[in-house]
Design goal:
Number of strands: 38
Number of helices: 8
CATH topology of the largest domain: Collagenase (Catalytic Domain)
CATH superfamily of the largest domain: Collagenase (Catalytic Domain)
Bound molecules: zinc ion
Largest sheet: 8 strands, mixed
Structural class: alpha+beta
Shape: globular
Radius of gyration: 25 Å
Oligomer: single chain
Strand content: 25-35%
Distance between the termini: 61 Å
Length: 585
């Protein structure tokens, strides 16, 4: 096995008033007032660099400037610096940072850049992270950012911004939005069918799009899916040829992307644009069940996998001393971690020992910490990082997860629980579950019941997993075993005997059922297989425990339980199983 060390850092920033997991809304008015520059432009090139300290990779997105709405600069192009990118055999991925792709046009909100890159010219960074860009959908004459959609680019968005700047814009290069929207509004492609209608993303599964007017060849044509990073407010154009299996005038086969470097895709309509820039949208909805990270940097689509990082079978996370000083926070982290480990047996351990490491960096420490000062910037509640290193396998090449860090905003009004959050609070356990979901190698989905939905309202709780989340987690786990083996890397040992695995929802419980309890519903006794040295425990669905007695071989007396739904947990030295049963009387 050859292993090349590539540090990849996924920065996960998100929150809620209609807040995104760890990004809260910075209104258009605040962005216009606080950003140093507001301008319209198109991304025409991307190049990545190490910063001068060689601690982080950033991407310079070259933007051709069309109109300046605010700012004292006259450049015809600007460099917008976003965290993450690839330099040689090293890469960093940031989430959710602003993710820009070549050809994207829209309104930029930028501020002075302090990333210390070897660049000259007009160098800026997005203001308010992923909210620093409003992407145009010229075909629909609309524009969208993380929280809002603007119908009418010149008639609405321009007017809103000039009303705030109280001045007209300055034209740098000719670009007529109204003309562009008219030209694209000719809708030749017609989509008659999508097959299948439900699929996972990032697993190399493909869909077949049937219809007409797609064009005999792809040319500059493309398929677009709904953008799950803003709940479907905009679309993600799939431009990478690796995702296309076939293209003809009436049939397109496209792999459903999980590209972690681009905006992620989610449930909704699918559209096709042909090389004459005419587009059509499906009437059917494609359901994206879960969206697994994949890396599309190289010539093939590559998977990420877990391995045995701590020599005890998995990964050990350490709370920083400031986190460890809040027992309720530590307990919430442990509960969120248990929810994932109980669902997929991912081998994650929360160390009882805190660390003084107070930085998210590729340093071998998986730290969970609060930020310092305004480290996380406007609108950002938290940030998570996953670091990967590149591995060569015999079948294909992979990215193994070598480190994970989470940074949370120390100024947020958190509810650590276990009680419910107040209306103004953010639920710490729900946010941790979401961030840990990113660390479990998932992009966002569009499903308000899923922990991987991009947004959670404050006052809301989302502390459990859906069966689709659990299915995805188990896909990552089984692929991790296969990939580690192929790459000759010590595989993760599934954490099957976590003593805290008390299922807390029907979805969790169903994944544990491998043998029925009989009868169910029951009145006085239940039969279930267990060995004589097993530990038998019964809980209700909020985790309160009840005494029961073993009445004989594979027989438990439950006559003291009142009517309701319970979880029976049977553990021995090696395994732990749980079953749901109900008592009817
Ligand atoms: Zn997220």
């Amino acid at each position: 096995m050859k292993t090349t060390l590539l540090a990849i850092s996924i920065v996960i920033l998100h929150a809620a008033a209609s807040a995104q997991c760890l990004v809260y809304e910075v209104p258009l008015s605040a962005r216009v007032q606080q950003a140093e520059a507001v301008f319209e432009g198109k991304v025409i090139a991307k190049k990545s660099f190490w910063n001068k300290q060689h601690t982080y990779i950033y991407t310079a997105n070259t933007v051709e400037v069309y109109k300046i709405f605010k700012g004292n600069f006259t450049a015809t192009q600007a460099e917008i610096i976003t965290p993450g990118g690839v330099v040689g055999n090293k890469a960093i991925v940031a989430e959710p940072a602003l993710k820009l792709s070549n050809g994207e046009t829209g309104m930029f909100f930028a501020t002075a850049d302090n990333t210390n890159l070897p660049l000259t010219g007009t160098v800026m960074k997005p203001f308010a992270g992923p909210q620093g860009f409003i992407q145009y959908n010229v075909a629909q004459n609309s524009a969208a950012d993380v929280f809002a959609t603007y119908q009418g680019i010149t008639s609405n968005l321009y007017k809103k911004i000039t009303a705030l700047t109280k001045s007209n814009y300055q034209v740098v290069r000719p670009y007529d939005v109204d003309l562009a929207t008219q030209e694209s509004d000719r809708s030749a492609p017609v989509i008659t069918n999508l097959n299948p209608l439900s699929v996972s993303a990032g697993t190399r599964a493909a869909i077949t799009i049937s219809g007409s007017g797609f064009g005999a060849t792809q040319g500059s044509g493309r398929v677009a899916f709904k953008n799950s990073d803003n709940g479907g407010g905009s679309v993600v154009n799939v431009t990478d040829p690796k995702y296309y299996i076939s293209w003809s005038d009436n049939t397109i086969q496209v792999i459903v992307p999980g590209d972690v470097m681009a905006n992620s895709i989610g449930t909704g309509t699918v559209s096709v644009t042909n090389s004459s820039a005419q587009s059509g949208t499906s009437s059917q909805t494609l359901t994206i069940t879960f969206n697994r990270y994949e890396i599309a940097l190289n010539s093939t689509l590559e998977q990420t996998f877990f391995y045995n990082d701590n020599a005890s079978g998995g990964y050990t996370f350490a709370p920083h001393t400031e986190v460890a000083a809040i027992p309720a926070a530590t307990a919430a982290i442990q509960r969120a971690m248990d929810t994932w480990t109980c669902a997929s047996n991912v081998n994650w351990i929360l160390s009882p020992t805190s660390t003084t490491t107070d930085v998210a960096a590729s340093d071998g420490v998986n730290v969970i910490r609060f930020d310092n000062g305004s480290e996380l910037g406007a609108g950002v509640l938290g940030m998570g990082s996953t670091y990967w290193s590149y591995c060569f396998g015999t079948m294909e090449n992979y990215w193994k997860v070598t480190e994970m860090d989470i940074t949370l905003d120390d100024g947020t009004n958190w509810n650590y629980g276990p009680s419910s959050p107040g209306g103004a609070q953010y639920d710490f356990e729900s946010v941790m579950l979401h961030e840990l979901g990113h660390l479990h190698q998932f992009n966002h989905v569009i499903n308000t019941s899923s922990t991987m939905h991009y947004a959670i309202a404050n006052g809301a709780m989302r502390r459990t997993l859906l069966s689709s989340d659990i299915t995805g987690a188990n896909v990552v786990m089984s692929a991790s075993a296969t990939d580690a083996s192929d790459a000759g890397v010590s595989a993760m040992v599934p954490y099957t005997n976590n003593p805290s695995c008390i299922p807390t929802s029907v979805d969790n419980i169903s994944s544990h059922i491998d043998q029925p309890v009989y009868p169910n519903p029951a009145t006085d006794f239940i039969r279930v297989k267990f060995s004589s040295n097993s530990k038998i425990e019964v809980f209700n669905l909020i985790g309160e425990s009840f005494d029961v007695t073993i009445a004989g071989d594979n027989l438990i007396d439950i006559s003291t339980l009142s009517r309701g739904i319970y979880v029976l947990k049977i553990s021995d030295a090696f395994t732990s199983r749980a079953y749901r049963f109900s008592v009817a009387r």
